[in-house]
Amino acid sequence: MFARQLSVALLNRLREGRVELDDGQRRQAFGPVGSDLAATVRLHDDRFLGALPRGSLALAEAYADGAWDSDDLVTLVRVGARELPRIDRWRRPFAPLRSALSRVPHNTRDGSRRHIAAHYDLGNDMFRLFLDDTMTYSCALFESPEFTLREAQEAKLDRVCRKLELGPDDHLLEVGTGWGSLAVHAAGRYGCRVTTTTISREQHAVAAERVREAGLEDRVSVLLEDYRDLRGRFDKLVSIEMIEAVGWQYFDLFFRRCAELLRPDGLMLLQAITVADRAYELEKSTRSFIRQLIFPSGCLPSVAVIRHSVDRVTDMRMLDLEDITDHYPETLRRWRENFVHSANRATAMGYDLRFRRLWELYFAWCEGGFRERRIGDVQALLAKPSYRGCGSPLRRTRVLTES
What we know:
CATH superfamily of the largest domain: Vaccinia Virus protein VP39
Order of helices and strands: HEEEHHEHHHHHEHEHEEHEHHHEHHHE
Number of domains: 2
Largest sheet: 7 strands, mixed
Strand order of the largest sheet: 7-6-5-8-9-11-10
Oligomer: single chain
């Protein structure tokens, strides 16, 4: 009873969207009439109301268990995202204390392998349920509304290569292989040598096979090593949406190691999912369902944190910073659509309904967060002191799809 009263009190404070609760017997609406965002929550038992005051982890577990549904998960997340700034105002003073209590480093070498395996070693076939044929698991670039997901991912891969000014004389290091799409693209299209590393055994096996199938074994080496253990010097370095798994205690170490691995005239491109600067302390301490159930021990940096770390511990300078956030909602919409349409295949592969519901919510949660810009995505181009290239940004991308 108390949880229901508290939930109703919270819902009565909605200012940025409208939510209707439907328990099958009555409907109760909250928030301003005529709001541009409105969603209905269908209650199958009392767990939604019990979970709401406890945050995203409890809500996600209740959703995965079938306790509630919504006619539009993304819109529901967007309503919550718009309300978060008011909630953050009373949470923020306690964030440094929570961060201090979580200073025990989790992403040691062994810890990182466990955390990466918990997500990326779920089975390559599971990721094939929603990814395109390139198996690229990061923000695509929809430069045209007619682009397929594959075309948008290839546009992103090519843009990364052009920003790095890749050529046949370059040796590119990739930190975070994924399933090998960038390594194959860079070596195949630009003729450079590529060394790429991952700590996921599942990804390593697929990437190595794809290199063999492309006939690029003489130009691409796929390693199963932690970035902290890499040796050598490279002309260019790229890391696409891998820093989120590094852990906030290790951001300085990550950038220092990247700088050490680059030649004096080298270039680095970092693509990173970010939070707003003002939200970073909360990000370090929040026990969200994404961090607990999807990406264990992950932490999103802010742009300011990236800049400060690069300035503090490396000799690199930032040449360019491009915001590609507006392309992520469409990427996630396509992934979620593919995943939902593959329900029968997922069941046949042994992924039960609870798992599928959790991942559907994960895609919707992220899409809503990007649409409301609670989270962002950037490409940062960094240069070592002796770099003398043009360093000029390419023509900025533009989203042409409907939001």
